[in-house]
Amino acid sequence: MKVYFIGAGPGDPELITVKGQRLLKEAEVVIYAGSLVNPALLGWARPEARIYDSSSLTLEEIIDLMEEAVRKGQKVARLHTGDTSLYSAIQEQIEALEARGIPYEIVPGVSSFSAAAAAVRKEFTLPGQSQTLILTRRAGRTPVPEAESLAALSVHRASLCLFLSAHCLKEATQELATGYGLEAPAALVYKASWPEEKILYGSLADIADRAQKEGIERTALLLVGDFLRGRGQRSRLYHPAFSHGFRRKKDEASHHHLDETGS
């Protein structure tokens, strides 16, 4: 048996992956990030499963629970919000498990940035607009390298999704305005994919004030960039004048047809 780090998705219980749901149903022990993971997901767990909320536990206590279960031949489902590769603090758990010789596997999930894009009905990467997405956070108790400051990143004017910064939006928007400008379009998505999801639209000049009026101080993502205007060029992938390995452009297809028929 082993520990399974499972990306539980952004909130909607149906946005957990098929594999993640299967492993959650099979696990004898479930450890979930109670401050962020939707407790509705626990409905997939076995009635007799031992369930622990990790929000009140230390790393050492979490690893002890994992080790005890695996040594007994039990499967452990470790639920993290969104996708495990982003702001999930799994690396320190992985290193602790490896030090104790405990096997593990990582099961990716749907990130909240994907759910936020779906909520605002936009695509981060628009032809002729932006082909880069920046996922970042503002420095707080967890520092951020100086080269990755919001002011430094803003000069790229790429599509951007800001995590873990809803409590300091005023400062964050001022720093982002360095490169984007105050009139850059912005959207704040609160609890993306949850029943209480809320979306605020504005610009870097006013989105923080809008959030304050709504009382939003956590569990929200800030989206910034021209992709929110939805004015990119048409994709070449489906353009009739563009050919690729699976389709000839229309004039080529017509000539090919004429050659074959002799018309």
TrEMBL record:
Q: Which InterPro entries match?
A: 4pyrrol_Mease, 4pyrrol_Methylase_sf, 4pyrrole_Mease_sub1, 4pyrrole_Mease_sub2, Cbl_synth_CobM/CibF, Siro_Cobalamin_biosynth, Uropor_MeTrfase_CS
What pathway is this protein said to act in by its record?
Answer: Cofactor biosynthesis; adenosylcobalamin biosynthesis
**Is Hydrolase given among the entry's keywords?**
no
A GO molecular function held by the record: precorrin-4 C11-methyltransferase activity
Keyword S-adenosyl-L-methionine found: yes
CDD domains under this entry?
A: Precorrin-4_C11-MT (cd11641)
- Residues covered by the Tetrapyrrole methylase domain: 2-207
Which GO terms fall under biological process for this protein?
Answer: cobalamin biosynthetic process; methylation
**Keywords, alphabetical:** Cobalamin biosynthesis, Methyltransferase, S-adenosyl-L-methionine, Transferase
Gene3D superfamilies xref list: Cobalt-precorrin-4 Transmethylase, Domain 1 (3.40.1010.10), Methyltransferase, Cobalt-precorrin-4 Transmethylase, Domain 2 (3.30.950.10)
Q: Name one Pfam family in it.
A: TP_methylase
Residue ranges of coiled coil: none
Report the superkingdom from the record: Bacteria
Q: Which NCBIfam families match?
A: cobM_cbiF
- Of which family is this protein a member? Belongs to the precorrin methyltransferase family.
Q: What is this protein called?
A: Cobalt-precorrin 4 C11-methyltransferase
